[in-house]
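From the shared-data thread, chain only:
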Amino acid sequence: MNRTENMMRLRQQGFSYGRIASLYGISRQRVHQIISGYSKNNHRLQRKNGTYWRLYNAVLDRDEHKCQKCGDDGKLIVHHIDGNDNNNVLNNLITLCNKCHLSLHRPPKTKIYLCMDCGKPLQDKNRKRCWDCFSKSHAKPERNKKIMELIDKGWRYVAIANMFKMKVSAVSMVIHRARQKEKVLVEK
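Structure, as tokens:
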């Protein structure tokens, strides 16, 4: 998947231009240009061009100077249905009010946060990695082995947590995962 397709996928998943820009180390404006297909040789109709205004007024007249989504007749905008600003065929243009036009271009309100390593959706927006990727990068096998030895000797979870400066829930998770691994090994 090339960079443009990846940026478009992230945008569809609710990432803002700024967030995508920070992931790629480029400006927010450049991300917008890449996603919209902008190039220096783009032959879009310029607003000062008479053809632009004739087309703009033809679309407004056809749509009776009303938003085709909500019926409002306030500030109206001519929108390209397929998103291609070079496709100026009347069937590709529609009249929208400012509010409806913005709703088409804004990302959905529910944002999806993805793991930066594997791309899986995250439950918590404050995390950057899913639990699997996080545990791989922060695995401490020696500590976990020592915890299991202490459990086998009858130590309490709280005492182990204090000893390793961990939360009791983290100690519980280490023990749970170790027992899961033992279970898998026994079944094989």
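The first helix runs from residue 3 to 12.
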